[in-house]
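W.,

You were right to be curious about this one. When I first looked at the sequence I had no strong expectations either way, so I just let the prediction run and decided to look at it fresh. Below is the sequence, 306 residues in total, followed by the output.
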Amino acid sequence: MTCAVIASDSHGINRDSCKPQVLLYYHCMDNILRKLPVDLGEHLHISFPLAHLREVKTPFGWADVRPYNRLFFVLKAPSGGGGDIRDAFGRQRLVLKKNTVLYMPPQTFVDCRYRPGVMVAAFHVQAELFHGNDLFLGQTRFLAIHDVHIADRMMEPVGKRSVGSALAMRSICLDIISRVADMLGVEVDKTLQLEARHGELLRIIRTHPGYGLRVGDLAQRLGGNRVRLSRDFAREAGLPLKKYIDRAVLEEAKRLLMYSRLSVRQIADRLEFPDEFFFSHFFKRRTGRSPVQWRDTARSREPFES
């Protein structure tokens, strides 16, 4: 089940005639909008596809990297816990306990192990402020949110195919992702300032990320001075423009490795690297893995023995 929400104050709906699930949905949406500048709602895009609803009978596990936020609602779990979730280095570990929601940010390695008796509803959440700019990108902290009523609230609508149940699930997700934003201290002011000052530059980088992008060429295309562009961007973004470009190239490389059938050489060509060896060096220096190793890990769903 997939539903995209474009946040806006003008829904064109008479809320007095809405069902309770719909009112709850709009209440949660309004709670998020009230925390943002008044002119920001039209740029906020939130989607909550239900990835899987699973009640585990035998032990199994998987490990991967995904480009979206993940919310795992633990609906059932044995007394000792229904397994755990860890990061790439094992420094963060969340136990799957009933009435707990686990949050993992985008582009983070997640190692998950399910135990018999656990039941999980997993949602993949994208919260984009302007196209391609997830509010939580760059976060690394995993979170566990405990709510004594969350399992019952989610169990009622989950798995049903009515509009009311879909809205009820998404209202719960909205509430949780809003709390996550508060806990992580997500700020939007810097993003707004960058978009206002360098909107065209950012659109070029997002739509055509490539190692061949040069600061001088971008400045010339935008009718500006290279030194001034680099200085202003670094001051306002908090990182050099070249580093921002490299980060965009890295994210696009991950996307292509994950979702395309292109070879490493073809990806290197598409991203304008001199050759695949240069690309592999660039990628490994920033991720600790070669492109092939990263792709194998990101796509894996390896079973494990208890």
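Here's what jumped out at me. The two ends are 32 Å apart (CA to CA). And, maybe more interesting for your project: Residues 1-27, 36-41, 301-306 have pLDDT under 50 and may be disordered.

Coffee later to discuss?

I.
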